[in-house]
Amino acid sequence: MSLPAPTAENRAVVTGSSSGIGVALAEELASRGYSLILVARREELLTALAEKLTKKYGIVAEVRAVDLSNREQRAPLAKELASRDIAILCNNAGVATFGPLAKLDLDYERDIMELNAVAVQDLTLAVLPNMIERRSGGILVTGSAAGNMPIPNNATYAASKAFTNTFAESLRGEMKEHGVHVTLLAPGPVRTDNPDQNEVGSKIPEFIWVTAAHTAKITIDALARNKMRVVPGLISKGMSLAGQFGPRSITSVVAGAAYKKLGG
Ligand SMILES: NC(=O)c1ccc[n+]([C@@H]2O[C@H](COP(=O)([O-])OP(=O)(O)OC[C@H]3O[C@@H](n4cnc5c(N)ncnc54)[C@H](OP(=O)(O)O)[C@@H]3O)[C@@H](O)[C@H]2O)c1
């Protein structure tokens, strides 16, 4: 089975499409003819992107300004997606914090779990029944190489991405017989134009970065082929393998020391 072809009615949904990888995923899908539903909190950025992609690719782009970490705001979106013809869902929105957990804002740490993990499950559950019934659809989950290992000084993020990584790869096994594609994007550092990246980004050597546009292209190609996991960039692939297969007692010490420099 391949992904559903774009039609006038169906939509590709991209969460976290007001900046970074989400913008690149939205543009990649629009360039392949998919009309979009763009989701994030900053409505003005979503609207600007919708206008740009509509003009450039002749698609339809709808905007939903929703705080996905808020269950009350998320519920109507999930209900809408369950009732629409969703060809592709890209669960991409996510945030990270750096530093010892006890020193961070604990309410915000709870919100990160809600956004990075629970919302991913929620929106996926919303679109799944129609995709199974149609025997077609694509679900992309943006996890992270950080989800492969324990990371002191990044505990909530690493744990939330362990959820997304395992959720996507487990679901893929269940969906094979239903014709629904499920792919995990588990990147190392991806350079985006998000100014928030500057502080952390300057502490990571330049050769490790890959671009968001390249990431989006190979990710949508991979989703079309129902690949299990995408890790863009050779260096990130190496780091990812070390995280997945290295002894956790060692990787946690090495990763913890590196992340301490990022904000600990
Ligand atoms: N860039 C990397 O190096 C890298 C590496 C590994 C994994 N990732 C993962 O890739 C995904 C995208 O990251 P990025 O680097 O592109 O980050 P980014 O530029 O900061 O984008 C994050 C997106 O998530 C949205 N978002 C944040 N909080 C939200 C909320 N409460 N409700 C709805 N939307 C929310 C943001 O929009 P609003 O602020 O407008 O809501 C924004 O569109 C994340 O899941 C991240 O964990 C990134």
Give the CATH topology.
Answer: Rossmann fold
Mean pLDDT: 95
User: Quick one: CATH superfamily?
Assistant: NAD(P)-binding Rossmann-like Domain
Terminal residue distance = 46 Å
The DSSP helix count reads 9
Proportion of residues in extended strands = 5-15%
Strand ordering within the main sheet: 3-2-1-4-5-6-9
Q: Helical proportion?
A: 40-55%
Overall CATH architecture:
3-Layer(aba) Sandwich
Write down the oligomeric state.
single chain
> What does the overall shape look like?
globular
CATH C-level name: Alpha Beta
Give the count of structural domains: 1
Structural class: alpha/beta
Largest sheet: 7 strands, parallel
Q: What is the strand tally?
A: 9
**Unique ligands:** NADP nicotinamide-adenine-dinucleotide phosphate
User: Radius of gyration, rounded?
Assistant: 18 Å
Please mark out the parts with pLDDT under 50 across 5 or more consecutive residues, or reply none.
Answer: none
Give the topology string: H per helix, E per strand: EHEHEHEHEHEEHEHEHH
